[in-house]
C-alpha cells in the first residue's frame, strides 16, 4: 500500500497554492466528453503537465487539463482527461484525480466515461446511469491501493454508487427530457478492445456496458468518504454485438455527437446536488 499523502505531497502543495477556491463537486470527463468544460465559465485552468508528479495521458481525446469553474453557484473541479491502467500507470496514479478532488475539499464526485454497449437495447449515443460496478478484474489492485488490513476497505466497495446521487441524476434526466438508460459497468484492463468471445462471457455475468476506467476511481472515492456516481456514454456496440469494426475514432465521434445532451444532463445534475 502506497501512502498517497507522502507520494503526492508536492503535487497537492502545488495545487493548493494555485487554486482559486475550494471545490465542492468534482467531475471527471471521459473520452471525447471533455468539451463539457468549454460550455461553462472557467475561473482557472491548469495543465496537468505543469503539476509536479502528475502522470501524462497518452490517449487521443484526453486533454490533460484541470479546470476550476462555477456553475449555478456550485464550485467545481473538472478533469479533462484521465490516465488509464493500460497506459502503464500504477493504480495509485490512475486515482490521482480522485485523491486531488478529495484533498482540495470536494465531497461529491461525478464520473463519466465512454463505454461499449453490451445490452441489446443500447445504441451508440445512449447515456447510461451506472447502477453497479463490476471490478472483479482489478480487485487485487484495488485492495492493494486501499490496504488489505484497512477495515474501511471491506465495505466501501459495495456501497456504490451513491443512491441519493443516482436518484438526483435520474430526476435531472427526467426534467431535461433525456432518456437515460441504466446498467452495470464492467471494467476491463485493456489496452485492446475485447473480443466477441470476451463480450459474450461478460454478458452472461450481467454486464450492460464495458470500459477501461471508472471502477477504481469510484471505489477509491467511496473509500475517501466521497459520494460518487457515474454516467457512461455508450459510444459503440461492444465487440460482436454488431458486425461493425470497433475503433477509437468511433468512440470520440459518438461522444462528440451527444456532447450537447451530455452537457445538458451534467448541468442539471450540478444544479440539483
Ligand atoms: N470496450 C472497452 N472500452 C471502451 C469501449 C469498448 O467497447 N468503448 C469505449 N470504451
Compact overview of the structure:
The protein has 273 residues and is α/β, with parallel strands linked by helices. It has 11 helices and 9 strands.
Structure commentary:
There is one protein chain. The two termini are 33 Å apart. The chain is of the alpha/beta class and 273 residues long. The protein has a five-stranded mixed β-barrel. It contains eleven helices and nine strands. Bound molecules: hypoxanthine. Hypoxanthine binds next to strand 5, strand 8 and strand 9. Residues 114-116, 188, 193-194, 210-212, 235-236, 238, 246, 251 line the site of hypoxanthine.
Number of domains: 1
Taking Cα atoms only, what radius of gyration do you get, to the nearest Å?
17 Å
Q: Tell me the CATH architecture.
A: 3-Layer(aba) Sandwich
**Uncertain ranges:** none
**Which range best describes the helical content: under 10%, 10-25%, 25-40%, 40-55%, 55-70% or over 70%?**
25-40%
Average residue pLDDT: 92
CATH topology: Rossmann fold
> Which overall shape is indicated by the principal axes computed on the Cα atoms?
globular
Level-1 CATH class name: Alpha Beta
Spatial strand sequence of the major β-sheet: 5-8-7-6-9
- CATH-wise, what's the superfamily? Nucleoside phosphorylase domain
Helix segment tally: 11
Portion in strands: 15-25%
The description of the largest β-sheet is: 5 strands, mixed, barrel
* End-to-end separation: 33 Å
Amino acid at each position: 500500500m502506497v501512502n498517497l499523502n507522502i507520494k503526492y505531497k508536492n503535487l497537492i502543495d502545488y495545487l493548493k497554492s494555485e487554486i482559486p477556491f475550494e471545490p465542492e463537486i468534482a467531475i471527471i470527463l471521459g473520452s471525447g466528453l471533455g468539451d463539457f468544460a468549454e460550455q461553462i465559465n472557467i475561473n482557472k485552468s491548469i495543465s496537468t503537465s505543469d503539476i509536479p508528479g502528475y502522470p501524462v495521458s497518452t490517449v487521443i481525446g484526453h486533454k490533460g487539463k484541470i479546470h476550476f469553474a462555477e456553475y449555478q453557484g456550485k464550485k467545481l473541479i473538472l478533469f479533462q482527461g484521465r490516465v488509464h491502467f493500460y497506459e502503464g500507470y500504477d493504480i495509485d496514479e490512475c486515482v490521482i484525480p480522485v485523491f486531488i478532488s478529495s484533498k482540495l475539499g470536494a465531497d461529491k464526485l461525478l464520473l463519466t466515461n465512454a463505454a461499449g454497449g453490451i445490452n441489446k437495447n443500447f445504441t451508440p449515443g445512449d447515456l447510461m446511469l451506472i447502477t453497479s460496478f463490476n471490478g472483479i478484474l482489478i480487485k487485487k489492485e484495488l485492495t492493494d491501493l486501499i490496504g488489505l488490513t484497512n477495515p474501511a476497505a471491506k465495505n466501501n466497495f459495495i456501497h456504490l454508487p451513491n443512491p441519493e446521487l443516482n436518484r438526483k441524476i435520474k430526476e435531472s434526466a427526467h426534467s431535461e427530457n433525456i432518456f437515460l438508460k441504466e446498467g452495470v459497468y464492467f471494467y476491463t484492463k485493456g489496452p485492446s478492445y475485447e473480443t466477441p468471445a470476451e463480450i459474450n462471457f461478460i454478458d452472461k455475468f450481467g454486464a450492460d456496458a464495458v470500459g477501461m476506467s471508472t471502477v477504481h476511481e469510484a471505489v477509491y472515492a467511496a473509500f475517501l468518504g466521497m459520494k460518487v456516481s457515474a454516467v457512461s456514454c455508450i459510444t459503440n456496440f461492444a465487440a460482436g454485438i454488431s458486425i461493425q469494426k470497433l475503433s477509437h475514432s468511433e468512440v470520440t465521434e459518438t461522444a462528440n455527437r451527444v456532447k450537447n445532451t451530455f452537457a445538458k444532463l451534467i448541468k442539471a445534475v450540478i444544479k440539483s446536488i
